């Protein structure tokens, strides 16, 4: 009888522990410590001609909504990225940096993904930041992904395809964009389905990576050059959901 009681208590403890872990939720860590061109912590009240306060609050609010749909909250990384900081995160969000990542930071990010973490990384065209300014390829190359040159076709408009990441074809904003090599393509400019601007990969150990060469969809720019119904929130909902699964 004592043995059965002990076994029952263990089961109850495990169930309780699982409930507590679920209640604690997940965390999206947004890197704002490497000269990011668009993202910053709204609490810091950084307003610019490029990203006024209202615009920043809108796009971080949209990202927060996408995270909340999967029981995740947003935090901001303003210091160098470390193993300890990443231990508290489920998804690292890097958008158009313009500064270098140290070798230690690159190692911490690689190990984070190899141990089951998720990475969403955007590197826009040279107009915003060059590959010499931000060594993002040092971050993604261990996962057989490379940010390449700017797309020579600068026409507007892009789309996703039905994939493990996006459930269906979404219309997304794009203008030129940086080409991305490696991984499994799932996003393109409307000009060509042979030159991807977005790819994903799954890493041994459970980690996931999405690399985008177009940043407008993750800035929630629903309107661009006469098109007013781009499906940014739906696209990002699928992206965040896949990364956090």
- Structural class, from helix and strand content? alpha/beta
N-to-C terminal Cα separation, in Å?
A: 40 Å
With strands numbered from the N-terminus, the spatial order across the biggest sheet is 2-1-3-4-11-10-9-6-7
Specify the helix fraction band: 25-40%
CATH superfamily: Class I glutamine amidotransferase (GATase) domain
CATH fold title:
Rossmann fold
Largest sheet: 9 strands, mixed
Q: What characteristic shape results from the CA principal axes?
A: globular
Q: Give the percentage of residues in beta strands.
A: 15-25%
Report the top-level CATH class.
Alpha Beta
Order of helices and strands: HEHEHEHEHEEEEEEEH
Question: Could you explain how this protein is built, in words?
Answer:
About 30% of the residues lie in helices and about 25% in strands. With about 240 residues, it is of the alpha/beta class. Helix 2 links the parallel strand 1 and strand 2 (about 70-75).
Topology:
Layout: H1 2-24, E1 26-31, H2 53-68, E2 72-77, H3 83-86, E3 91-95, H4 103-114, E4 118-122, H5 137-140, E5 145-150, E6 156-160, E7 171-175, E8 178-182, E9 184-189, E10 196-202, E11 208-212, H6 232-244
Parallel strand pairs: 1-2, 1-3, 3-4, 4-11
Antiparallel strand pairs: 5-8, 6-7, 6-9, 9-10, 10-11
């Amino acid at each position: 009888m004592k043995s059965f009681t002990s076994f029952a208590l263990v089961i109850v403890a495990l169930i309780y522990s699982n409930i507590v872990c679920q209640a604690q939720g997940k965390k999206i860590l947004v890197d704002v410590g490497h000269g990011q061109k668009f993202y910053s912590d709204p609490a810091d009240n950084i307003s610019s001609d490029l990203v006024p306060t209202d615009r920043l609050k809108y796009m971080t609010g949209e990202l927060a909504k996408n995270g909340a749909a999967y029981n995740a909250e947003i935090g901001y990384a303003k210091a160098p990225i470390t193993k300890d900081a990443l231990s508290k995160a489920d998804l690292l969000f890097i958008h158009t940096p313009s500064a270098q990542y140290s070798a230690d930071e690159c190692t911490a990010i690689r190990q984070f993904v190899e141990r089951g973490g998720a990475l969403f990384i955007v590197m826009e065209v040279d107009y915003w930041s060059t590959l010499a300014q931000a060594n993002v390829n040092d971050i993604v190359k261990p996962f057989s992904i490379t940010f390449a040159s700017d797309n020579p076709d600068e026409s507007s408009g892009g789309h996703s395809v039905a994939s493990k990441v996006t459930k269906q074809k979404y219309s997304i904003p794009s203008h030129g964009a940086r080409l991305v090599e490696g991984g499994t393509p799932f996003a393109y400019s409307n000009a060509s389905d042979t030159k991807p601007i977005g790819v994903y990969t799954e890493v041994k150990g459970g980690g996931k990576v999405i690399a985008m060469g177009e940043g407008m969809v993750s800035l929630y720019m629903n309107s661009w050059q006469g098109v007013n119904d781009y499906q940014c929130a739906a696209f990002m909902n699928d992206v965040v959901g896949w990364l956090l699964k």
